[in-house]
Amino acid sequence: MATGLVSGSSVLYCKLKLYKQHGYKEASWASGVTFKRSCGVSKCLQVREHEFFRTTFTNNRAPFRPLTTVSCLGNDATKYFDFAIIGSGVAGLRYALEVSKHGSVAVITKAEPHESNTNYAQGGVSAVLGPLDSVENHMRDTIVAGAYLCDEETVRVVCTEGPDRVRELIDLGASFDHGEDGNLHLAREGGHSHHRIVHAADMTGREIERALLKAVHDSPNIFMFEHHFAIDLLTSQDCSEIYCHGVDTLNSETQEVVRFMSKVTLLASGGAGHIYPSTTNPPVATGDGVAMAHRAQAVISNMEFVQFHPTALADEGLPTKPTKIRDNCFLITEAVRGDGGILYNLGMERFMLQYDERAELAPRDIVARSIDDQLKKRNEKYVLLDISHKPREEILAHFPNIAAECLRHGLDITSDPIPVVPAAHYMCGGVRAGLHGETNIRGLYVAGEVACTGLHGANRLASNSLLEALVFAQRAVQPSIEHMEDSHLDLSALDSWARPVIPVSLGNSVLEEITQRTRDVREELQSIMWDYVGILRSTSRLKMAERRIGELEAEWEEYLFQKGWEVSMVGLEAGEQETAYNHLPVFASKG
User: Fold this and answer.
1) pLDDT tens, 367-397?
2) CATH code of the region 508-588
3) Has 165 been annotated as catalytic?
4) pTM of this prediction?
5) The CATH number of domain 78-305+428-493, selected from 3.50.50.60, 3.40.50.300, 2.60.40.1180, 3.30.40.10
6) Which of 177, 249, 341, 364 has its CA 20 to 30 A from that of 348?
């Protein structure tokens, strides 16, 4: 019987019986099953004999030997690795390259390896590399942008270690833009007091992802598993400690459940932009990682802090409209404003100075709220971002990707303004992490957007996301290696969790109906989030959202059960939807 909100199935209550004479717990499944109002426990270990925990948690066992090939232990249904990484963005790949020097690594990715938020990052990586800049300047800009809600120690660590992480990327083959003097070209973006953004034109994330994927491909100890949707973390509990032992996944191409057993798990699954109808995030960003960690009883923090990027391309303002609706909005990088771009309403009135003395260079949250205010006051659908006063050659050199995309739709950005509108962009909260990416669950580390390190506070400073991912991926390496080497668990003996079930028994026609209904529910959920939990919020509107989401969830669950869906079943569409419901109460908990 599967547990956790696994692809739209149930969460089972896990009751733990304490055996004081042995100092360990026996986990067993409670007979009552609930689809809603669960205790939020992930796959808790099912124990068949009391002796099991004494043998697996004792400290006098010989360590389980490091694996060097996939075939050492495992089959199609269960695979064994020293390290399992959920996510193939910059955090997951950078971590994989380091830990692969010490053991076998599985990189589990929901779609193609390159399909991550990293690949869509245009602006760059912020780091103190200029002679006139300083760590203190970068710290101050980060804390101001975060509304003084950042963790100062985290900010200092990231800003101090950032330059070395950038140099390591260059050593790995990442190619960044250089100026005429031969030094790195450092751009400036909103909220930054100095030029400190290392970039590769307006496709920085794509270049970083390319370099990292090549290095991963060349590593003999890293194995990539594409199209594997992470369902639930595998955990056990010993007294007050929770341990993570891997993850269950759904191979969305073969429709098979694959279990990954590991000594260490890194959660680097990205954000949750598709909780909203308009987002710059790729379709894979549905918040699966936060939901899994929440069910496993990891601490979740600051989920109310969702950043809306002020300038996504407004398709309805283009001369030639796209022939189909985009999966995600096309981002117009912060660097356009940093390079001198000016915002106008449709009356060609520059408006940012009405809201902030920094004008277009104000932090993102201020610019997004200002645009939102203009749109509501003037009853308009978008505003205009104009960079056409800059030299044509400079525009095309700095923003070739944006220029090409706009030109495809009849807009020449060297002569005409760009229609833009805010869109959901980044999740500042997530799984609470310490200074080395550690969580309150032993053996589970987090890095990247899924983590809440305290760096961003209430609003992320532009180009600090790739920086944070790089720094924390590196900082998680040494404690992960130590945990792996100290592990005395025989993973093959530990594989005692019930397995999820593919719902083939329902038949194709019923499954197609469920898939379509789930998509309809998702659209309605996204609409509620945009209307009530968007750029501006109030207590009354959050309460309205909570009520409407609760009703929608109940209706959807009732529909699934009527169609014969059982608590142990898993499916990609339903899994993403249940993921959304699982952490929405955390989103709406604060204004």
Assistant:
1) 999 999 999 999 999 999 999 999 999 999 9
2) 1.20.58.100
3) no
4) 0.84
5) 3.50.50.60
6) 364
